[in-house]
Design a protein that fits this description.
Blueprint lengths: L1 E4 L2 E5 L9 H13 L8 E3 L10 E3 L4 E4 L7 H11 L4 H13 L11 E5 L19 E3 L1 H11 L5 H15 L3 E7 L8 E5 L3 E5 L11 E6 L5 H10 L2 E3 L2
Parallel strand pairs: 4-12, 5-10, 6-11, 7-12
Antiparallel strand pairs: 1-2, 1-3, 8-9, 8-11, 9-10
The structure holds pimelic acid (PML).
């Protein structure tokens, strides 16, 4: 589902479900679009398609949260986390600054993610305006229930979508970390996911009111770009553990 107003993206979501749930999920996604906190859309696109490949089943990333950071600046926190991920902090912080400034060559928010070589800082996505979009992923209803139990009142639909997306992204063997900052001016919790560690939520990753953000996938070594993009954009993944 993609909802927009005056061609500006408002919300999006995707599900992987059995055939007999299509109509109820279509209703759920339409309502999510219609009653989104960002306001009413003037266009809602629902695309329903048969999966061509069976999904890969994955275990949800472990979730951590940096709850109280009064004693630390965001720069200090990110530096520590980049170090844990094996990313040079100068490179990591320059990517953080690019995301909160608008990482497309026009200084606007990219629709997809950057791919960043974590050793050189070179961006590898073929289209620097669009980036690459991780897609075709979902979580089973049982696991969604477990996630809600685990995180309690911190659960938000944005968070669920983000941890599902990041589980898919981190499963790629060349990815060492993902950094994400929402471009929603009111959503100031972001995250870094780190290989062999988990999804680390970071409160106040940006200042409230800033309509900028985006994602960066940090990779190590020489990636096979076509296969990498094909995995991110078209390989179905279902989180069931
Ligand atoms: C987005 O919706 O653009 C990003 C959401 C990040 C969610 C972070 C969290 O709440 O864990």
């Amino acid at each position: 589902m993609r909802a927009s107003r005056e061609r500006e993206h408002i919300s999006g979501a995707e599900r992987i479900v059995p055939e007999d749930e299509i109509s109820s999920i279509a209703k759920e996604l339409t309502e999510r679009a219609l009653y989104h906190p960002k306001g009413k859309p003037d266009s809602i696109n629902l695309k329903i398609e048969l999966l061509e490949k069976s999904p890969i089943y994955l275990k949800l990333l472990d979730i951590y949260e940096i709850a109280d950071r009064e004693d630390y600046t965001i720069k200090e926190i990110l530096t520590k986390l980049f170090k844990k991920a094996g990313i040079d902090s100068t490179i990591g912080l320059s990517i953080y600054r690019a995301l909160i400034s608008g990482a497309s060559p026009a200084g606007t928010v990219m629709r997809g993610a950057m791919i960043v070589d974590c050793q050189t800082g070179i961006r590898l996505e073929p289209d620097k305006f669009r980036g690459i979009r991780a897609s075709y992923m979902d979580i089973t209803p049982e696991m969604e229930k477990n996630l809600k139990k685990l995180v309690g009142e911190r659960f938000t639909p944005n968070m669920k979508d983000a941890v599902v997306l990041s589980t898919k992204v981190l499963n790629h063997p060349d990815v060492v970390a993902e950094l994400c900052i929402s471009d929603d001016p009111d959503y100031t919790t972001g995250y870094i996911s780190i290989k062999n560690f988990g999804y680390v939520r970071i409160k106040n990753i940006k200042l409230p009111g800033l309509p900028k953000g985006g994602r960066a996938f940090f990779v190590k070594g020489k990636i096979e770009r076509k296969a990498f993009i094909e995995y991110m954009e078209t390989t179905p993944v279902l989180i069931n553990e």
